[in-house]
Amino acid sequence: MAKSDSGVGRKLLLKSEREKCWHARDAYWACLESGRESGTGKANRCSKELAEFHNACPRQWIDHFVRKREYDLFKEKIEKGEASDKDIKSHMTFSIPKEARSGPA
């Protein structure tokens, strides 16, 4: 899938591979959002999308995308004035959710 960059250990994705990764990420986010809106935000209901996300994207990208999404959701809460002290403290010690880090069970 990915090609090494002159042996440095860094991987470069082709444009088609990047697009596949972004599409898988967006499908996973959409699934999570639909669960959040309906009140059933359990990640296991999105296991198919999560598996596709992990198959299509490098681990570093997944970590970055998850952190960015969590930050954007936190920022949205702050801007709306909906963030509690607990939200702020938990965001300060943020770690990537287990299911997103390890992939589907």
From TrEMBL:
GO cellular component, one term: mitochondrion
Gene Ontology process terms (BP): mitochondrial ATP synthesis coupled electron transport; respiratory chain complex IV assembly
SUPFAM superfamilies in the record: Cytochrome c oxidase subunit h
Transmembrane domains' residue ranges: none
Record key words, sorted: Disulfide bond, Mitochondrion
Compartments, as annotated in UniProt: Mitochondrion
Domain of life where this protein originates: Eukaryota
A Pfam family of this chain: COX6B
Gene3D superfamilies: Cytochrome c oxidase, subunit VIb
Region (Disordered): 85-105
InterPro entries: COA6, COX6B-like, CX6/COA6-like_sf
The name this protein goes by in its record: Cytochrome c oxidase assembly factor 6 homolog
Organism in which the protein naturally occurs: Macrostomum lignano
Taxonomic lineage: Eukaryota, Metazoa, Spiralia, Lophotrochozoa, Platyhelminthes
